[in-house]
Design brief:
This protein is α/β, with parallel strands linked by helices and 292 residues long. The chain contains nine helices and nine strands. A hairpin with a 5-residue loop joins strand 4 and strand 5. Helix 4 crosses helix 7, helix 7 runs antiparallel to helix 8 and helix 8 crosses helix 9. The radius of gyration is 27 Å and the shape is globular. The N and C termini lie far apart (75 Å).
């Protein structure tokens, strides 16, 4: 029930000054002097505003992104220009601060908000940023020092092996060079965790990640929903497309299709070529390229 007074409150202070004395309790007889048939209107509130179904029915949705900064010095890659290939410089790095890096791209993409960033989380994580897409999704992205790609991969696998919270839809994403291609990183595989299946969704945007990561993700109990079948550029437009799909509860096939479409658009290649990168072509088996 709602009470609407027809006179301003300063008039009531003269009729019943006790209202303005906060140290004293309000007396019932005082209230009766205020409330009378001529000074109020009584009406019942018979309706309420219902929340959209997805607000009450869907759990919160979150993606953790681990970005291994590209590093010409320590990673087995074809060198990129020095300014964007310094693994100790997130601000200019190809996978973080450059135009198609995670921080820059998500900060400017339609429907996205940068909720804030923090630098120097520790010696390995050089920056952490929080993003939101509309009101449907939050993303936490960590920029790992390029020379610590081994730790980035290990942390990714540990997150993938951790069962999702019962009240949260979770995805974990790795972006960067496929460090498992490098002989120097092979010992880290022995430290990859194993877990019974729990189906946390995992994405690896790195060259030929289907071959190098999927087996380990399955052993960790996770579900690799977007992986790659060829060499590729792990840039943030693919992450952005996959994230929107995940927020909208897209299937694995739909997530791969979204990744393929975004990759084809920004790389200016055919839709067929884009699909071959992510194994999204339903009519032909993806081509597996191996360096082994």
């Amino acid at each position: 029930m709602v009470i609407v007074f027809s006179q301003p409150i300063h008039n009531y202070s003269r009729a019943c000054p006790i209202i303005l004395k906060k140290s004293m309790p309000m007396k019932f007889n005082c209230l009766l002097k205020i409330i009378n048939r001529r000074s109020i209107y009584l009406f019942s509130v018979l309706s309420f505003t219902a929340l959209p179904a997805y607000v009450t029915a869907m759990p919160s949705t979150h993606i953790s992104v681990i970005v291994s900064l590209v590093d010409n010095e320590s990673q087995g890659i074809v060198p990129v220009p020095a300014k964007i290939g310094n693994g100790d410089d997130p601000h200019n790095n190809l996978y973080w601060g450059a135009a198609y890096g995670v921080k820059t791209f998500l900060s400017k993409a339609n429907g996205w908000r940068n909720l804030g960033c923090e630098k120097d989380i520790n010696d390995t994580i050089m920056e952490r940023c929080q993003f939101a897409w509309k009101d449907n999704l939050t993303v936490t992205a960590d920029a790992y020092r390029g020379s610590r790609i081994d730790q980035a991969m290990l942390d990714f696998m540990q997150q993938a092996a951790t069962p999702p919270n019962a009240t949260t839809r979770e995805m974990v994403v790795f972006i960067g060079h496929d460090g498992l291609m490098d002989e120097q990183n092979q010992p880290i595989i022995e430290r990859f965790p194993k877990h019974a299946g729990h189906d946390k969704q995992a994405v690896v945007l790195a060259c030929m990640s289907e071959e190098f990561f999927s087996e380990h993700l399955l052993a960790a109990g996770a579900k690799p929903v977007v992986t790659t079948y060829s060499f590729m550029a792990p840039e943030a437009y693919v992450l952005e497309a996959v994230a929107r799909g995940f927020a909208n509860q897209a299937s694995e096939a739909e997530l791969r299709s979204s990744a393929s479409a975004a990759y084809a658009k920004y790389q200016r290649i055919s839709a067929k070529a884009g699909k071959s990168v992510f194994g999204a072509n339903a009519h032909t088996k993806p081509l597996r390229l191996s360096l082994r």
